[in-house]
Amino acid sequence: MAAIDRSPSLEILVRGPEGFSLWNGPPFSNGEPGIKIEKVPCSNVNFSEDGSKLMVLKPDSVISINDCSSYKEIRSFQIPNLSAATLSPCGTFLQTFQRASTPQEKNVILWNTETGDPVYHQFQKNMTKATWPSIRFSSDEVVACRLATNEIQFFDAHDFSKGVVHRIRVPGLAAIELSKTPGSHVAAFVPESKGVPGSIQIFSCGKDSESQPIARRSFFRCSTVQLNWNRGSTGLLAVVQSDVDKTNQSYYGESKLNYLTTDGTYEGVVSLRKEGPVHDVQWSYSGSEFAVVYGFMPAKATVFDKKCNPLLELGTGPYNTIRWNPKGKFLCLAGFGNLPGDMAFWDYKEKKQLGTTKAEWSVTSEWSPDGRYFMTATTAPRLQVDNGIKIFHHNGSLYFKKMFDKLYQVDWKPESPERFAEIVDLIKSIDSLKVEEKKSQGQGSKSSQASTKSTSANPPAQKPAAYRPPHAKNSAAIQAELFGEAPKEAMSKNALRNKKKREKQKEKKATEDAGGS
């Protein structure tokens, strides 16, 4: 009980055509979530990374910033010709991108959410995945930088009026990724050009540090890259993708998983035990292990340590997604997108599978901040039908399901995992709460209460029944009849009638044979 009282309550943001609502998260008191905020008209809504602020895009290009402790509006901005907006990790700054009418117009503006004042302006021709957000922050907002032509520019995050305070020159620079916790390093990607191999380089963010990379990895046949820092900023995973597979085994090109460390102890390709693409990769919350889904279908999944040694094999199956829960204890292995939605839940600490289930047509999926629930959602515009939300227990058993005519967005409210008790203590305390509620209701006998207690705890996930063709549906009864056994199930009236006819025919034939002899 004490662990639950100290832990913050979970909240779920749900957005549809009429706006967004805020639900009280699980556990639900009567099987249904309580509504904390009723529908608020908006075109988009997002939390800051730490969950302290909520940004709401209202009609007529109005952006409202709300404090998540009370959900009261603290500032609103009127931004004409707005194309995109995002909050900094702690919600201190709002970054907006406007359609520029002239090259002289500074269309990217950084606003202070407390005062409402603009603190930085710049011109940006277009907005792509590599160039937005234009200014990148570390999770604590101590470091701020941006991608510029052939260089990385750094700012004083406490005083943007100083302008650019530090630069790192990187010719041919196409993408950067700033480490989040802490913001001590930045990774730079330079694509292949005119016979010169592409490269990933790691630089230190300190102003006094040299502009030489502390780690570097070069490769040919590379068009795009996905950069993924661990918590602690000691390791970088880079999925290098090329548009063409020279072995002609994959229509989607080929991909390799590279690993670089900031101390220079490892720079190379992660050795994977199956040929094929890298579908997904994710670090654990501690930053000490990472899990990879890879290979041609059925794909293989493996957990590695920071030295790229395999720690646990998660088997093979129709999977392309891996989700590690914030407490680092549970893993969900899933096959979403064009796959049928199979999910396998693992206990990484005990190294055993907890259960399997399905969540067909899922578009988004994520663990709750406390690590006890896994939520999937089918949303528009990716899918226009069968929109809905499913919440599963940590072992894969279904806890809650709700369908919608149209659903655009579903998110957990971000919270730091450290604010929650250990996962085992949380599960035990919730189970004890359920038992106390049932005892207070006083419904049924002691035996029925005991059976309810055993079934109300997380039930094991049930596998779907195997397919049986029509001609084999009565195979058990026929087999029993052939071998002179009693059928396991009662036969139908027609089957009994036909059986009697056959028995009479056998008796008639036997008497005829006896008379003839």
Automatic annotation (TrEMBL):
It comes from Quercus rubra. It holds the Pfam family eIF2A. Residues 504-517 have a biased composition (Basic and acidic residues). Belongs to the WD repeat EIF2A family. GO terms for molecular function: mRNA binding; ribosome binding; translation initiation factor activity; tRNA binding. The lineage of its organism: Eukaryota, Viridiplantae, Streptophyta, Embryophyta, Tracheophyta. Residues 435-517 are annotated as: Disordered. This is Eukaryotic translation initiation factor 2A. Residues 441-457 have a biased composition (Low complexity). Keywords: Initiation factor, Protein biosynthesis, Repeat, Translation regulation, WD repeat. It comes from the Eukaryota. GO terms for biological process: regulation of translation. PANTHER family: EUKARYOTIC TRANSLATION INITIATION FACTOR 2A.
